[in-house]
Amino acid sequence: MLSEERQKRIEEHLLKVEFASLDELSELVDASVSTVRRDVSLMESRGLVCRTHGGARLANPKSDEYTFSTRDTHQLSQKEAIGRACAGLIPPNQTVIIDAGTTCYHVAVQLEAKTPHIITNSLPVANHFSASSRMEVVVSGGVIYPKLGVLVGPLAVEAFTKLRADVAILSCGGVTEEGISNSHGLLIEIQRAMINAARRVILCVDSSKFGRQSISKLCDLDMLDSVVTDPGVPEHFLALLRQRNIQVVLANGEAVEPMPALMAGPAMDLDAPREPSRPGRSFDDVPLNVL
Q: Is 176 strand, coil or helix?
């Protein structure tokens, strides 16, 4: 691949994620880190990007196409249906970790009547409940990433490392046979901490994400307990998930019963060691590709 082609792909990728590490860009364009570093330097000289420690970001983002509010309009009806279906799985008074994805936001909105204890790094979720006297909301620390409406960085990771929850509700950028992936490498470590903090893990994702692979792998499919999606998912993916003993809920407007395993469990003790529903799950074999 010629330098001009690499630079074009790098710019297109940064339009989507805004920040990226050199390792991430190296994998994207299939070139060495030193080659990518030279490309980034050339792009910086043209005013396209700004170099950061170990990575690059757009100098002047050209569009707000991928902001939270705009992403929330994509597949909106599916996301709202998924939010209702996922909320139906959660019994009242649970401790629930909620990811910063737009689909997860719709889950949070539907959970309000069940007065759960919510732990999140999502600014839209925190803002939604800011005036509620019924809800107990814990917001992680971290650095505000305005474009995504999310708190990121070591403080965010540390918060989820120290807390415990009954269930974690996650989103992602892609689902394939190889696992779950995300376009934003800076979110991966946080999401892994969320998974480790919860007894159950529910992935909420619309059907457009199936068959799509984003640049940073989050985890294998076996790390999931349930997947809530819309009826547009290809049948072979539904069969694959069920073969892995993953509960599949299709959001088609029908009422959903709470997960029996969650109903049977006692209220979560935030100081107690985590007892995962899948004791064998581990991130040891999944490389961490973050900023």
A: strand
* Cα distance from N-terminal residue to C-terminal residue, the chain: 24
User: Among the ranges 106-110, 149-153, 200-204, which has the highest mean pLDDT value?
Assistant: 200-204
pTM: 0.69
- Half-sphere CA count of 207, side-chain side, radius 13 A: 17
Q: How confident is the model at residue 118 (pLDDT cuts 50, 70, 90)?
A: very high
Predicted local distance difference test score (pLDDT) of residue 135: 83
- One DSSP character per residue, 184-232 reads -HHHHHHHHHHHHHEEEEEEE--GGGBT---SEEEE-GGG-SEEEE-TT
Cα 192–Cα 163–Cα 282 angle in degrees, nearest 5: 30
CATH number of 3-58: 1.10.10.10
Determine the Cα–Cα distance for residues 165 and 160; give it in Å rounded to an integer: 9
Please state, in angstroms and rounded to a whole number, the distance separating the CA atoms of residues 229 and 101.
Answer: 14
Q: Which CATH class is domain 70-264?
A: alpha beta
